[in-house]
From TrEMBL:
<dbReference type="InterPro" id="IPR000634">
    <property type="entry name" value="Ser/Thr_deHydtase_PyrdxlP-BS"/>
</dbReference>
<keyword id="KW-0456">Lyase</keyword>
<dbReference type="Pfam" id="PF00291">
    <property type="entry name" value="PALP"/>
</dbReference>
<feature type="binding site">
    <location>
        <position position="87"/>
    </location>
    <ligand>
        <name>pyridoxal 5'-phosphate</name>
    </ligand>
</feature>
<dbReference type="GO" id="GO:0004795">
    <property type="term" value="F:threonine synthase activity"/>
</dbReference>
<feature type="cross-link" description="Isoglutamyl lysine isopeptide (Lys-Gln) (interchain with Q-Cter in protein Pup)">
    <location>
        <position position="143"/>
    </location>
</feature>
<dbReference type="InterPro" id="IPR004450">
    <property type="entry name" value="Thr_synthase-like"/>
</dbReference>
<feature type="domain" description="Tryptophan synthase beta chain-like PALP">
    <location>
        <begin position="24"/>
        <end position="328"/>
    </location>
</feature>
<keyword id="KW-0791">Threonine biosynthesis</keyword>
<comment type="similarity">
    <text>Belongs to the threonine synthase family.</text>
</comment>
<feature type="binding site">
    <location>
        <position position="327"/>
    </location>
    <ligand>
        <name>pyridoxal 5'-phosphate</name>
    </ligand>
</feature>
<dbReference type="InterPro" id="IPR036052">
    <property type="entry name" value="TrpB-like_PALP_sf"/>
</dbReference>
<dbReference type="InterPro" id="IPR050214">
    <property type="entry name" value="Cys_Synth/Cystath_Beta-Synth"/>
</dbReference>
<feature type="binding site">
    <location>
        <begin position="187"/>
        <end position="191"/>
    </location>
    <ligand>
        <name>pyridoxal 5'-phosphate</name>
    </ligand>
</feature>
<comment type="pathway">
    <text>Amino-acid biosynthesis; L-threonine biosynthesis; L-threonine from L-aspartate: step 5/5.</text>
</comment>
<keyword id="KW-0028">Amino-acid biosynthesis</keyword>
<dbReference type="InterPro" id="IPR001926">
    <property type="entry name" value="TrpB-like_PALP"/>
</dbReference>
Length: 368
């Protein structure tokens, strides 16, 4: 049986590698494209979720990190650095371990989830909690890589975008063509840029560096719909935000690095970048777990929140194919599932170990 070999080997002809490249992989990619039953019923379109929480470290970052770490090794790097709201640091730490490199990560103090923090620590990264936000962390990481012998693995490194474009390839390979609309959360804006690059490359003949001219795989490219958290929505404002704030800490970013690429993805595709409130994000988070059976972290629900917002405004077409990338696993930041909409906590009921009490607690009728 065919064993998935990770995105770099699966898509080698379309990535900056050759047969002799030492590929650093943990088997990322090949994630499920799940039909969203409730969203499909609601909209009258075929809605699918690209479930990126199924990657080795639980987020889409692994697609970019396999390529970035492969490039770091090819460049002879001994140490890597990144700024992160959590998922990039978890991924960098794991892939640096696989590569045998040391890893330093800069995260905003008090603003990353416990799950992500523990991943970076578990994999042996040096984790520094910076008194500042993500944008400050990225600024320092870039300066560090400019002046010291450390290799930057943030998405300003083009290798990251190259790896992440494979998400679009997998969607087309699963559906047989590109969807009509692709929806995703936007933070530092690497992923929307990467998907758009992947969709464009799959829709035209491709000059491979190693495999000659590859024919087009899809007949069209999708419209790209990106959604930011309302308190951290620089693309909606049209300028960077100095004090970004949202409960969706993964996308708490005010000055996205891939600004121009994301604007190009939006405009070339005829799409949009809009915002959703924290309340809408948490509603979509509950929708995904309670109606679709898919558990994500809050930031990952921003795309679904956006689709629900557009549907309420009558702006989601029926009869189309819509793919939403849900970017990270619910176990990264599980506390949100144990809160009600009003913020009060959910306490699972406690019972004794006799069957009559348990049956009564479950509302079951019958004879014990
Ligand atoms: N969803 C999750 C779960 C993320 O962790 C991120 C970004 C995004 C969406 C947004 O993607 O930045 O490509 O627009 N997390 C980065 C990090 C910033 O450090 O983990 P983007």
């Amino acid at each position: 049986a065919h064993q998935w070999r990770g995105v770099v080997r699966e898509y080698a002809a379309r990535l900056p590698v050759t047969e002799t490249t030492r590929v650093i992989t943990l088997g990322e990619g090949g994630t499920p494209l799940v039909r969203a039953q409730a969203l499909s019923a609601l909209t009258g379109s075929e809605v699918y979720l690209k479930v990126e929480g199924m990657n080795p470290t639980g987020s889409f970052k692994d697609r970019g990190m396999t390529m970035a770490m492969t490039a770091a090794v090819a460049a002879g790097a001994k140490a890597v650095v990144c700024a992160s709201t959590g998922n990039t640091s978890a991924s960098a730490a794991a892939y640096a371990t696989a590569a045998g490199l040391t890893c330093a990560v800069l995260v905003p103090a008090g603003k990353i989830s416990m799950g992500k923090l523990s991943q970076a620590v578990a994999h042996g990264a040096t984790l520094l909690q910076v008194d500042g936000n993500f944008d400050n962390c990225l600024d320092v990481a870039r300066k560090l890589a400019d002046s010291y012998p450390v290799f930057l693995v943030n998405s300003v490194n083009p290798a990251r975008i190259e790896g992440q474009k494979t998400g679009a390839f997998e969607v087309v390979d699963s559906l047989g063509d590109a969807p009509d609309i692709h929806v995703l959360p936007v933070g530092n804006a690497g992923n929307i840029s990467a998907y758009w690059k992947g969709y464009k490359e799959y829709c035209a003949p491709y000059e491979s560096a190693t495999a000659g001219t590859l024919p087009a795989v899809s007949t069209k490219t999708p419209i790209m719909w990106g959604f930011q958290a309302a308190g951290a929505a620089p693309f909606v404002a049209g300028h960077p935000i100095t004090e970004p704030d949202t409960i969706a800490t993964a996308i708490r970013i005010g000055n996205p690095a891939s600004w121009d690429l994301a604007v190009a993805a939006r405009d070339e595709s005829g799409g949009l970048i809009d915002s959703v409130t924290d309340e809408q994000i948490l509603q979509a988070h509950r929708w995904l777990s309670a109606k679709e059976g898919v558990f994500v972290e809050p930031a990952s629900a921003a795309g679904v929140a956006g689709l629900l917002k557009k549907h309420a405004a009558g702006e989601v077409p029926s009869g189309k194919t819509i793919v939403i990338t849900v970017t990270g696993h619910g176990l990264k930041d599980p506390d949100w599932a144990l809160k009600n909409a009003d913020g009060s906590s959910i306490e699972p009921q406690r019972v004794g170990f006799d069957v009559v009490t348990v049956a009564a607690a479950l509302g079951l009728e019958g004879e014990a």
